[in-house]
């Protein structure tokens, strides 16, 4: 499976413990997949309270995880 074939992981949680556990599991899954490709980093995007997307990003260097918080941005 290539990096481009791995579907981003969407996470919706209602409490802090679930958030920590789910985000850690999603990032770990992405790290395992990224090791074979060595081309993309991981971007964790917070879309709202308890709503996240974890995905590969060519804007993030391999071996790094970056975070973006879009909760309070206006169009």
TrEMBL record:
So which domain of life are we looking at?
Answer: Bacteria
Q: What is this protein called?
A: Uncharacterized protein
């Amino acid at each position: 499976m290539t990096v481009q074939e791995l579907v981003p992981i969407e996470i919706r949680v209602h409490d802090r413990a679930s958030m920590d556990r789910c985000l850690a599991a999603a990032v770990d899954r992405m790290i395992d997949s990224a090791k074979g490709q060595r081309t993309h980093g991981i971007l964790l995007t917070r879309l709202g309270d308890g709503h996240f997307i974890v995905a590969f990003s060519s804007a993030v260097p391999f071996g790094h995880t970056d975070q973006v918080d879009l909760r309070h941005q206006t169009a």
